[in-house]
Amino acid sequence: MTGAMLAIWSDVTREQETDYLHWLTREHTAERVGIPGFEAVRVFRADLSETCRYLILYDLAAPSVLTSAAYMARLNEPTPWSRRIMPTLGNFARGGGPVRAARGTGSGAHLLPLRLDRPAGGAESLLDTLAAEDRVCAARLLEVDQQGSGVPTSEKALRGGDGSFAGLLLIEATGVDGLRDALSRHRHAIAALGTDVEAPALYTAVFSLRKAELETGQADAPIQARFHTA
Fold first, then answer.
1. Shortest CA distance to 145 belongs to which of 2, 1, 4?
2. Does residue 68 fall inside a structural domain?
3. Is residue 109 within 8 Å of 204, Cβ to Cβ?
4. 226 in a structural domain
5. Rounded to 5 degrees, what angle do the CA atoms 37, 62, 84 make?
6. What integer pLDDT is reported at residue 128 of this predicted model?
């Protein structure tokens, strides 16, 4: 469990989905994880029949990474591929900050992410209960740093407006039944954190990358030389 995270949602059309996934897996996530303070990334797809919705979760060394010079430099100099992708993304929402509480071990391939409309405090006992549920691996509570997440950048300008949220509850499990059962048993306590628990979308992991997996010296190479931008 890291000390900070960055969460990013977006919708893509079915026609755009392959290009979007190639951008994520062949350029964008490696570019981000190569930045100092970015430790790892996981990409999840919502289990929705009519919408192609993705959630990107970055593990950060500290909340200050959100406004670091290296990260700001990338946000203000998006690649050609990023410039093409960013304006096409719908329902974009982004928020990062400190992980205020974490329980459990490791991570699961199935995720229930619940956005909170207010900062959550004193939820440690609920996280203990959630992490003890059958087939649940871990539970985390993220508090969004609104100032750090809201810095204007060239990349943000390409999207024309981002959605925001105050916090994020993440419940991870080895299967969707574990998530559904945990939500059913603790629906009222979870809702009390300030989130909508009526038929929330479940997510499945589709890609992950750790900093150690990047090729030696790759993070220092010119971005145009490292990635295909067709």
1. 4
2. yes
3. yes
4. no
5. 50
6. 97
Assign 140 to helix, strand or coil. strand
Instruction: Give the burial string for 61-75 (b: 16+ CB within 10 Å, else e).
Output: eebebbebeebeebb
Give domain status of residue 58, yes or no: yes
- Rounded mean pLDDT, 142-164: 94
Phi and psi (nearest 5°) for 131?
-65, -20
Closest by CA to 142, choosing from 111, 99, 194, is 99
Q: How confident is the model at residue 68 (pLDDT cuts 50, 70, 90)?
A: very high
The CATH number of the domain where 181 resides is what?
A: 3.30.70.100
Q: Two tokens at 38?
A: 């970015």
- Domain tally, the chain: 1
How far is CA 161 from its chain centroid?
18
Phi, psi of 108 (to 5 degrees): -115, 160
Interatomic CA distance for residues 98 and 167, integer angstroms = 10
Is position 104 within any domain?
yes
Cα angle 177-182-183, degrees, rounded to a multiple of 5: 100
SS3 content of the chain, % helix, strand, coil (to 5): 35, 30, 35
* Domain, as residue range, for 83: 4-217
User: Are the C-beta atoms of residues 173 and 137 closer than 8 Å to each other?
Assistant: yes
pTM, rounded to two decimals: 0.92
